[in-house]
Amino acid sequence: MKRSGLGSATGIVCAAVMAVGIVALVGNEPAKAARISNPVAEFAGIDKITGRITSFDVYIDETVQFGALQVTPKVCYSRDETEAQKVDGFVEVDEITLDRKIRRIFSGWMFADSPALNAVEHAIYDVWLTGCKQASDVPAPAKTN
């Protein structure tokens, strides 16, 4: 029995039509989670000598001292409640040395889902991002004109 090739051509056309239909249904834009910029970053830190873990809030572009470290978040992003939370922030951490000099020991992204990935590890203190939020019990810093 001889095949005319019509069946394979029809199959290719059907597959192409189905692919076009799927692209039309899904769209050619990838789905993106809405990124929310938050005014407050939440951190946790441990003093390895005492074993005490402290949670603290820091407003964006403000600096808070934790032991000999100064923590300054530059941005803190989360997703809206309909998305899986992926909290990340860009953070700068400086150390105040024994001779009172300030030395940058960390500048980069921290991820709340993976605290060990980019946590600040210091001989005495560790600091990591735990979340972002819109408001804090800590009073906002005074605005300077």
Please give a structural write-up.
The chain is globular, with a radius of gyration of 25 Å. It has one helix and nine strands; from the N terminus they run H-E-E-E-E-E-E-E-E-E. It has a domain at 35-133. The strands form two sheets. Strands 1, 4, 5, 6 and 7 form a five-stranded antiparallel sheet that branches. Strands 3-2-9-8 form a four-stranded antiparallel sheet, with no helix packed on it. A hairpin with a 2-residue loop joins strand 4 (64-66) and strand 5 (69-79). The protein is mostly beta strands. The chain is 14% helix and 43% strand.
Jot down its keywords.
145 residues, mainly beta, 5-stranded antiparallel sheet, 4-stranded antiparallel sheet, 1 helix, 9 strands, 14% helix, 43% strand, globular
Summarize, please:
The protein has one helix at residues 6-26, and strands at 35-37, 40-47, 53-59, 64-66, 69-79, 88-96, 102-111, 120-121, 125-133. With 145 residues, the protein is mostly beta strands. The chain has a domain at 35-133.
Instruction: Write down how many β-strands occur, each being a DSSP E stretch of 2 or more residues.
Output: 9
Q: Give the proportion of residues in helices.
A: 10-25%
Q: Roughly what fraction of the amino acids lie in strands?
A: 35-45%
Distance between the termini: 90 Å
Q: Based on Cα principal axes, name the global outline.
A: globular
- What would you call the structural class? mainly beta
Transmembrane segments: 6-27
InterPro entries: DUF2155
Keywords: Membrane, Transmembrane, Transmembrane helix
Protein name: DUF2155 domain-containing protein
